[in-house]
Design goal:
There is one protein chain. This protein has about 60 residues and is mainly alpha-helical. It is built from 1 helix and no strands. The longest helix has about 45 residues.
Length: about 60
């Protein structure tokens, strides 16, 4: 019978280097920026709707 060889794979947990940290920070910033942009667009849309309603109210009352 042939001998069976067992390969043991050791997973070493390496400390992240500068490039890895930079990549993680960059990806996190991209995600954060998208969320901020989405919130700002919604806020500006709400402000625009309020301004249109205000203009309509002012012109109908005058």
């Amino acid at each position: 019978m042939a001998e069976q060889q067992h390969h043991h794979h050791h997973h070493h947990h390496h400390k992240p280097d500068g490039a890895t940290l930079f990549k993680r920070k960059s990806l996190a910033w991209i995600k954060r920026r998208k969320v901020i942009e989405r919130v700002l667009k919604k806020a500006l849309f709400v402000i625009a709707v309020i301004m249109v309603i205000a203009v309509i109210v002012v012109y109908t009352l005058l």
